[in-house]
TrEMBL record:
Belongs to the hcp beta-lactamase family. It holds the Pfam family Sel1. One of its GO terms (cellular component) is mitochondrial intermembrane space. InterPro entries: HcpB-like (IPR040239), Sel1-like (IPR006597), TPR-like_helical_dom_sf (IPR011990). This is Cytochrome c oxidase assembly factor 7 isoform X2.
Amino acid sequence: MARGYDLTSDAGTKEYLRDVEIEYQFQCLDQKEVDGCHRLGEFLENIRKNTTAAAAIYKENCDKGNYTRSCLKYGHCLNFGNGVKEDKTAALQYFEKTCKLGNGSGCFYAGLIDLKLSLAEGKTPDKAVQLMSQSCDLKCSEGCFILASWHLLGRYTDKDLRKAFELNQKGCNLENVGCCSNLSIMYRHGHGTNKDLSLATEMKKRAEQYSADHLKKQPVLKFNE
């Protein structure tokens, strides 16, 4: 799309969006590019507000193309009933597939759903703990934070302050505010590590800095990445 568009006018904006949609349709339907299909799904979901069509594209792109981001997206569609009928069990399956494809967020959301389903059935959520561990290993900071919290409290797994400390270290290095805050407290009281007031102060400052950085970041919808 080398041509110029007058995005200050409604007509120019509509023309631009029409051409973007045509480009993504070509990439997906003609060229069979999985990233193009995912972009088309995002365009339909966020610009056209056609969640049903978007969900169908995410599903096919995951089922046939094993495209991780589409698997994650379709899992969310199923989890929240966005464009499809809500189905937690099916959502779990797609999040688990995302996890197996090496995406930490897939492991994280699979863990959350497995925890909910296991508790509802009166089962021990061992699988949820395993999935959270995988999510942290795959650099999903939220997974590190959740699993660290479970070890701190002895909830759903053994109480292990040293393990909680190590998980919080991982999460803090991934700029997770909660993990850095936990580290500050653990250093201050000597929980799971040696007491160190200097490091406690440093971790508190990191938490405050990461929190400020996150607030500055505004969500931006991007189609060509």
